[in-house]
Amino acid sequence: MLKLSCSLRSAALLLRPAAAAQPRAHFGTGPQQKHRTFYEFRTYCIHPDQNAAFLKLTNEKIHLRTAHSELVGYWSVEYGGLNKVFHIWKYDSYAQRAEVRATLAQDPTWVSEYLSKALPMLTSQDNEVTYMVPWSRLQSPPQEGGVYELVSFQMRPGGPAVWGKAFQAAVTAHDAPGYGKLIGAFHCEFGLQNRVHALWWFESPDHRAEIRHTAHHDARVVAAVRNNIVNLDSQRNQLMLPCPFSPLK
């Protein structure tokens, strides 16, 4: 009887569809990062009465920080948040970032001339580690003097295997016909999971408003956005002005 029972269980395992486990195995996967380079997004909130002083101090002392690692861009938030700055730092590896942070902590000039003065001006700090999505490359704006929009999408759980293609289609539907200049698209690794960001450049806030109005009448864009929002939980937009010392202007 025992032998027969074991045989029946074995037969049941053999007859079980192999595909049943497949969705669980690949539910959160998608195109993977092929290199170690990542981008740290940092957001600082500033005491309202210290905003101007913080920007002045950073403008004067940022060279002490950029001597250690690459600054991609530094912006003050104009719409979508008040008394905030947003900056992006590029690292070749986690080991490089750890080394940079350790070196800065032991740099008396950085600590005395910037850090000790800047920290009391802040109300909070936040950071994310992001990778560029596989189909995006970091771009430069066509000219200096514009504004940047950071659009942050909180997607539903599941990862790029679930919503990656729809997100790509929605972004490229705006980028390809010129409804804004895509600077880069990023996927959050540490921070809120299933979050993706698109960084755009426009000539001015009014230019952005005109382009958005035109895009809303483009059937191809409307269809791509409609397909993407099925997987979208929330979205946040911030319009930002590049600081004088920002590499991306």
Précis, in short:
With 249 residues, this protein is α+β, with helices and mostly antiparallel strands.
Radius of gyration: 23 Å
Structural class: alpha+beta
Bin the strand percentage: 25-35%
- The span between the termini is 78 Å
What's the count of strands?
Answer: 8
| Largest sheet entry | 8 strands, antiparallel, barrel
CATH top level assignment? Alpha Beta
Strand order of the largest sheet: 1-3-2-8-5-7-6-4
Tell me what the CATH architecture is.
2-Layer Sandwich
- Molecular shape: globular
Number of domains: 1
- The topology string of helices and strands comes to HHEHEEHHEEHEEHHE
Individual helix count: 8
Helix content: 25-40%
Enter the CATH topology name: Alpha-Beta Plaits
Low-confidence stretches: 1-32
Mean pLDDT score, rounded?
A: 89
Detailed description of the structure:
By secondary structure, the protein is an alpha+beta fold. The protein has a single domain, classed as Alpha-Beta Plaits. It contains 8 helices and 8 strands. The protein has helices at 2-15, 22-26, 51-66, 94-105, 108-118, 160-175, 205-215, 219-229; strands spanning 38-46, 70-79, 84-91, 122-132, 147-155, 181-190, 195-202, 232-242. The protein has an 8-stranded antiparallel beta barrel with strand order 1-3-2-8-5-7-6-4, surrounded by 4 helices. Helix 3 packs antiparallel against helix 5 (108-118). The N and C termini lie far apart (78 Å). One of its GO terms (biological process) is mitophagy. This is Nipsnap homolog 3A (C. elegans). Belongs to the NipSnap family.
